[in-house]
Queue: 3 jobs
Job 1
Amino acid sequence: MNELAPVIAIDGPSGSGKGTIAHRVAKALGWHLLDSGALYRLVALSAEKAGVPLDDTAGLAVVARALDVQFDSNEDGSERIRLDGEDVTLEVRTEQTGAGASTVAAIPAVREALLQRQRAFQQAPGLVADGRDMGTHVFADAALKIFLTASSEERARRRHKQLKDKGMDVSLAALSRDIEDRDRRDSERSVAPLRPAQDARILDSSGQSIEAVTRIVLDWVSEL
């Protein structure tokens, strides 16, 4: 890794807002951005397209090593993700793909296959990395580690609004159950479980605006 490129690691559970905050902080600083969750979602999606079952650990590791992915932006600045040349931006963000990502993320061989790919994002002038084990495992020497959280009820409401805004018909009650199930899987997995790093700053975003949380993070960055 490039020791001259500092890393800000933002970890947290599903729906905590870490992706949105990481994107805003990276843009404000002019740094690179790593959406590690998207990589696991892409493994799950690629496996589905290839007909590889989510209980085929060896097959999933092969899928992870062979990922042909391009992260890009549309003219309006919104994200665009291509898998094998195909635009899969919407597919990547569905709840079904998210559930698959939580399953494959618990597989050690998949995590190992993606580890170096994630660390390769650490380039000058710096990197903002969001995920579930950025500060505890992937970038354990990050200059700033943040564990972003919120109540499960608020996270479900945020996710519900996000999906509705994208035209997806989803049940708030179902989302709440899915978030609780995913929290349990992520925190109980044997490899790199979801938890704050010992030296992480805990930031509860419940009841706070995106702008307010972004300001707090940027204030912490200015202290480095």
Job 2
Amino acid sequence: MVAIAAREFKARKSVGIEIRKKVAIQARKKISYIANAEIRMGDIRTEPISDATLLFFWFTDQRIIKHMLKRFMIELKGQARILTILSPPDLMLPSKMDFPFFLFQKPFKFATSLQQQFELINHKPCIDFVESWSMAERYINELDVVPGQHRRFVNILQSVMIWINAWNTGTACENEIPAPVNSYLGILRTFFGIDLSDLISTTSRFK
């Protein structure tokens, strides 16, 4: 993303922040030939962001998201923008959408509840497993980084994760776990050693 911003979108300066030293060193080597691109080794929670006009934010840890939301509100200037993939940070409402990408522009807007956010973004109050599969497929196709022989596996894994998140937050259309989800949970557990069943809430307060 740092290289794309620098070369294709002609950013005055494209900066990536990586907390892992080994990964940061490898990334620096890959973009060393691009004059307006830089990889900083540091923690996004403490690195300066006030001069950013477009910030690519790809975190799922709610502790980091909550911390950074406060910084976005206070430190980002003017009409600064935030770009995320697959989902918005917390209850933010996007100014533009081109799935799986969401763009947010300051002054930021927020939904009052997860259900309201979901309905405003998807134009419906819930998502079923068929739509979860379709969303995962679009995500894979748009990013085009998954080799053909692995697409089926990634589609299964991603669609199940999307549906589980919807179930746990009360935005799944089904009132019980659908047969395809049970089947794919079994496949992932038996053939790949991936057990996602513990992620499914059995006492969701949204239900």
Job 3
Amino acid sequence: MKSGNAAILTHKQEGRALRLFKGVRGEVEYLGEFETDEKLPFYNTDAPEAGDGPVRSVIVFRLRPLVKTVTGPAADEVVASTNKVKLVPVEEQYTERAFIEPGREPYEAERRESKLVQAFCQYLGSKGHAVQRLQVLPAGEVKPIFSDLYVRDIPLLVEAKGTVERGSIRMALGQLLDYRRFVEQARCAILVPSQPRPDIVELVRSVGVELYWPENSGFNAPI
């Protein structure tokens, strides 16, 4: 916490205004005067270097507008005071994947995942279910999280992965646990492109999560 970061953190104590602009060069947009959150002014997360460089640890400041009339982009960047949950269409391709290394396997896995989600949506539609996505902005956060699929009438949360590799399955389990906090009594399932190895199947089912994959002309999902 030094240089510019330190100046942001201590701006109130040192009597400096913290003014937020959107843009890097050329014409930029002035969003107003802000201050750091008193209880939790910043947190650490991971993000890639500029130009798709390696992932590194970064500081994210939590800012609040001093003037309540701030509108436009700044309104979406203010910290949520309570959990905000809503449903969004599957067609709105939001993603939580902040860093993908170009030319590596994750790209191909994402292509497989996208086709898998589309096929499963059609399958659910043929069974009479309306499919959406869950968007959650947790209290104290500035960026929302999105489930891959949410079937409200079941209710069912689905996280899709384009590979049955153990790391991807473990990530999906963590994501589902995160989403499930905001939906009462929802079933959870991981959608994968093929039947995983027995130990992976046992891992998923041991925590009460279902596992779906393409089978015959449809899916093995008991829906």
